[in-house]
Amino acid sequence: MSLIYYTGQDIGLTTTVVDDTGAVPGGELSVALTVTDPAGTVTQPATADAGSGRYTAVVPAAAVSGVWLYRWTATGTGTGFVDEGQFSVRPLGVEQLVDLASVKAHLNMNPTDTRQDDELQGFILAAADLARDVVGPVLPEQHTEWHNGGVVALSLDWKPVTSVQSVTEYVAASTWVLTEQPLGTSTDAYGYTVDLDRGQIVRRATGGAVCFPHGVKNVKVVYTAGRSGSVPWSVRLGTLELIRHLWQLTQQGGRTRFGGSTLDGADSGIVPIGFALPQRVIELWAPYRRGPGIA
Questions:
Q1: Which regions of the chain does DSSP assign to beta strands (E)?
Q2: Residues 6+ apart with CB under 8 A from 275
């Protein structure tokens, strides 16, 4: 079975039942499969006897992303069998900066050899998490944040910002929805301007800058961060190099060379085992590295 699935995908499960001596059972069996999704919902898909002790079942259209657990049980004369495991279901829209075909090309792998595809997909997802932490989101993603009032400008957590959907102020029992009013077009006292690249929102009142109302977490901002789905080439190459680095360390015994080249760009070819991010990757991502957060 695969290691990673997608939401909405049918998932086939199999097990081979053995009796208490380790042999294929000869008598009648009662075989059941219990599946628990990430939300805690338990189901029991129908099982089918495929012969020679092998049983199959299908989890239809897995709708919840996360880690699913399953448990096979089989009982009969001389048989008390249990087999447990898990599988992961990916949500739609997970940031994936490079595709599987590009990774296999970068690693000089045979594109028709699919034996390691599931494992490589896990490396792709892990590399995207690390890239997002360093350069910020690349593919569009929506965020909802609550900020303290009493300041003229708010700094959003994730940059660059693609668009702002809403800015809402809460003052006691009153709610005020602000509108974007670029300088020169201001119409009332309930406006804001936004600097998309810096991720800053300035409170405006008929063109002038004023403070958001004082309060703790009383300003709600809903916005989309990312680079409109465009992956810069240096970010893409850095991601491919990171995958190669991690693949080498975990799959190839930490050898210093892969396909005749060094991983860190140095003549020595030495890559410190203790570092997940080699210097070469950090340098490739440097033009898009996001600034430090403000506590």
A1: 4-6, 11-16, 29-36, 42-43, 47-51, 54-59, 66-76, 79-90, 141-147, 153-155, 161-171, 174-180, 191-195, 200-205, 208-209, 219-225, 257-258, 261-262
A2: none
Cα angle value 13/93/159 (rounded, 5°): 145
pTM of the full structure: 0.68
- Position 248 scores a pLDDT of 87
* Amino acid (one-letter) located at 72: W
Domain 4-90 class in CATH: mainly beta
Q: How many CB atoms sit inside 10 A of residue 115's CB?
A: 8
Q: Are 242 and 277 in contact (CB under 8 A)?
A: yes
What number is the average pLDDT over the span 138-165? 93
How do residues 45-56 score in pLDDT, each as one tens digit? Answer: 999 999 999 999
- The b/e string for 200-227 (b: 16+ C-beta within 10 A; e otherwise) is bbbbbeeeeeeebbeeeebbbbebbbbb
Is the pLDDT confidence value at 269 over 50? no
Q: Angle at the Cα of 135 (from 134 to 141), degrees rounded to 5? A: 115
Rg (CA), the chain: 26
Rounded to 10°, the helix 233-251/117-135 angle is 130
Would strands 4-6 and 79-90 be described as parallel, antiparallel, or unpaired? parallel
Each domain of the chain, given as residue ranges in start order, spans 4-90, 100-137+230-288, 141-225
- Maximum CA extent, the chain: 85
Segment holding 98, helix H or strand E: none
Q: What percent of the chain shows pLDDT beyond 70?
A: 88
Contacts of 261 (CB under 8 A, 6+ apart): none
